[in-house]
């Protein structure tokens, strides 16, 4: 695989957890092509917790990168220095991928990278982003937004979702799921369309339906109706739907469809099964139905997907 250069651009007042996410996901590994460098305008950067970071890379590495990632920083309403904004705008203009985690979206917005695009940030700063940057189409209550070469995430853990989404886009479901297992993270949370992926934020809950979701994932090839899922959880269908939405931010049937599509992607990447067999084993029934789901969700076909990601 050709080397893909990732520059993690650290700003003054960086949030350490936001910084840790991309450096962990895009660290150099034999199974991925990423070569990651932490960069900043100055060799030393102070974090939000008072720790100083010594950074080896500069803006020249940002300009040479294929993907530039800006972690969250405080206070977000203080714009980064002009050379940083220029480097971000230049990356966008050259067609490079530009990514923000949490309040890193404010740096992208200040550089004009988000003008006319959908974007998101931490829920506590949504109104500030809307007020200060009216050219940005701010989306509330989403995990992340994928606008092709410009991607933004909500707070902290949503940065993990976004980074794993990028890996899945680049390298397929198998590699992304392997990284997720190493991080002990949910393998994939998304929704929407191929170039614009809004995913609802889950409401905090006690995850009482986790056992039912795990049970379903072992039986995706079987007929699974709302009644079957509610019966396994020991609830009425109405109570089950309400609790499921509280815990996952989506409906049981939408979640099930995405789980089946995820299994189909793994089977296409790792087996030589026919499209008909893949459709049966993931519970989507027929090749025609599988193609319909791929077209609607990924804007491609199962055959083209397999050709792209089979190793």
What features would you describe in this structure?
By secondary structure, the protein is α/β, with parallel strands linked by helices. It folds into 2 domains: 4-183, Class I glutamine amidotransferase (GATase) domain (Rossmann fold, 3-Layer(aba) Sandwich), CATH 3.40.50; 203-311, Arc Repressor Mutant, subunit A. Helices cover 46% and strands 12% of the residues. A 6-stranded mixed beta sheet has the order 2-1-5-6-10-9, with helices on both faces. The protein has a two-stranded antiparallel ribbon with strand order 3-4. Helix 6 packs antiparallel against helix 7 (173-183) and helix 9 crosses helix 10 (237-248). The longest helix is centred in the C-terminal third of the chain and has 19 residues, at 252-270. Residues 190-198 and 202-206 have low confidence and may be disordered. GO terms for molecular function: DNA-binding transcription factor activity; sequence-specific DNA binding. It holds the Pfam family DJ-1_PfpI. Keywords: DNA-binding, Transcription, Transcription regulation. InterPro entries: Class_I_gatase-like, DJ-1/PfpI, Homeodomain-like_sf, HTH_AraC, HTH_AraC-typ_CS, INH-QAR. Residues 210-308 form the HTH araC/xylS-type domain.
Low-confidence stretches: 190-198, 202-206
Number of helical runs?
14
Query: Would you tell me the overall average pLDDT?
Result: 89
Principal-axes shape call? globular
Give the name of the CATH superfamily of the largest domain.
Answer: Class I glutamine amidotransferase (GATase) domain
Spatial order of the strands forming the largest sheet: 2-1-5-6-10-9
Q: C-alpha Rg, in Å?
A: 20 Å
Major sheet = 6 strands, mixed
CATH architecture of the largest domain: 3-Layer(aba) Sandwich
């Amino acid at each position: 695989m050709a080397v893909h250069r990732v520059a993690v651009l650290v700003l003054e007042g960086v949030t350490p957890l936001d910084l840790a996410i991309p450096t962990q996901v895009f660290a150099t590994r034999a199974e991925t092509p990423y070569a990651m460098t932490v960069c900043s305008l100055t060799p030393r950067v102070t974090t939000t917790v008072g720790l100083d970071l010594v950074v080896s890379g500069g803006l020249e590495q940002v300009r040479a990168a294929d993907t530039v990632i800006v972690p969250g920083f405080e206070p977000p309403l203080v714009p980064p220095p002009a050379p940083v904004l220029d480097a971000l705008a230049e990356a966008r203009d050259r067609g490079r991928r530009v990514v923000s985690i949490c309040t890193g979206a404010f740096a992208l917005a200040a550089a004009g990278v988000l003008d006319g695009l959908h974007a998101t940030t931490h829920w506590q700063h949504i109104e500030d982003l809307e007020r200060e940057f009216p050219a940005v189409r701010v989306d509330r209550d989403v995990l992340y937004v994928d606008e092709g070469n410009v991607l933004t995430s909500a707070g902290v853990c949503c940065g993990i979702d976004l980074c794993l989404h990028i890996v899945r886009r680049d390298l397929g479901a198998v590699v992304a799921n392997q990284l997720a297992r190493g991080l002990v993270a949910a393998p994939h949370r998304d929704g929407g369309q191929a170039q614009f992926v809004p995913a609802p934020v889950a409401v905090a809950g006690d995850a009482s339906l986790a056992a039912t979701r795990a049970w379903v994932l072992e039986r995706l090839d079987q007929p699974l109706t709302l009644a079957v899922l509610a019966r396994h959880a020991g609830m009425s269908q109405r109570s089950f739907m309400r609790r499921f939405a509280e815990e996952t931010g989506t409906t049981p049937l939408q979640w099930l469809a995405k789980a089946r599509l995820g299994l189909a992607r793994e089977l296409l990447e790792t087996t030589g099964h026919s499209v008909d067999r893949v459709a049966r084993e993931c519970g989507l029934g027929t090749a025609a139905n599988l193609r319909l789901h791929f077209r609607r969700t990924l804007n491609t076909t199962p055959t083209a997907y397999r050709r792209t990601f089979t190793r």
